[in-house]
């Protein structure tokens, strides 16, 4: 079985402000989705996912659907077939180290890894920019709207600087970034949280606009620190970013509690990551990594999530 993996992501800085033209910094984490694929003689697509725990079988026609548990997989296989100009029966096995629907980019990682696996199996070599564009199409079709950030991150890996309207830049970061994610396991809707911030911004523009601009300043400063390898201020910038996100009303008691638990256990910085309202927080700890991990594990689903600089990769196996 040919296996391909792609990483998940965390938003390091700039969530919500990025909706209003400010930059965001996104990093891929060493938590991967793996997709194994092999040809079948019958004209069916059989898919198994560890997370779902059952097999599902699809016809070629079913691949047009954008619903169901395997919606990203179905669209990714279909788009890969179109790209190659060939259809074949397939068996796909998916395993994930990422909790689903928690803002850690699992759907983008599934889309990228599935596309790359099927394209490679069928002998089609595509550039990373083509792969990221195809995976973005998968997310657009399934979700209706989607930023290209998560699929670009899962493809290229590393730390990406996202400037809306101007594109995505991969930064040259050489330092290790030891991170821990604390997952509240509370579901949230990115759409509703973006709408909540919009309402606040519209009702109090004089107050809220500077908060958003300051998040942009924090993100630009964080970029400078990362590129220069000056990590001493990175934690402080994360703490400031969390404060500004609290001001926008997107933190929750659970998220802020985890943020303070991480700081008390020795994290240099901690903030919520992603849309807020539940989901995950992020702690940066170089010296006291183990104590922060232990403290967060007691109170949440804690994941070691250091930044990886490697994006999608063919793990091996027979074609
Ligand atoms: O939690 P996520 O990965 O859905 O992140 C949302 C990030 C926002 O800035 C809140 C929205 C967006 O589209 O950028």
How would you describe the overall organization of this protein?
- The model has no long low-confidence stretch (mean pLDDT 95).
- The protein has two domains: 2-172, Ribosomal Protein S5, domain 2, CATH 3.30.230.10; 179-304, 2-Layer Sandwich (Alpha-Beta Plaits), CATH 3.30.70.890.
- Strands 1, 2, 3, 4, 5, 6, 7 and 12 form an eight-stranded mixed β-sheet that branches.
- By secondary structure, the chain is of the alpha+beta class.
- Strand 6 and strand 7 form a beta hairpin.
- It has helices spanning 71-84, 106-121, 128-143, 149-156, 190-203, 205-228, 234-247, 253-264, 289-299, and strands at 2-13, 24-40, 45-49, 55-58, 89-96, 159-163, 167-170, 179-183, 269-273, 280-284, 301-304, 313-316.
- The protein is built from nine helices and twelve strands.
- It is globular.
- Residues 11, 15-16, 18-19, 103, 147, 190, 194, 274-275, 279 line the site of (3R)-3-hydroxy-3-methyl-5-(phosphonooxy)pentanoic acid.
- Residues 11, 15-16, 18-19, 103, 147, 190, 194, 274-275, 279 line the site of (3R)-3-hydroxy-3-methyl-5-(phosphonooxy)pentanoic acid (PMV).
List keywords for this structure.
319 residues; alpha+beta; Ribosomal Protein S5, domain 2; Alpha-Beta Plaits; 2 domains; eight-stranded mixed sheet; four-stranded antiparallel sheet; 12 strands; globular; binds (3R)-3-hydroxy-3-methyl-5-(phosphonooxy)pentanoic acid
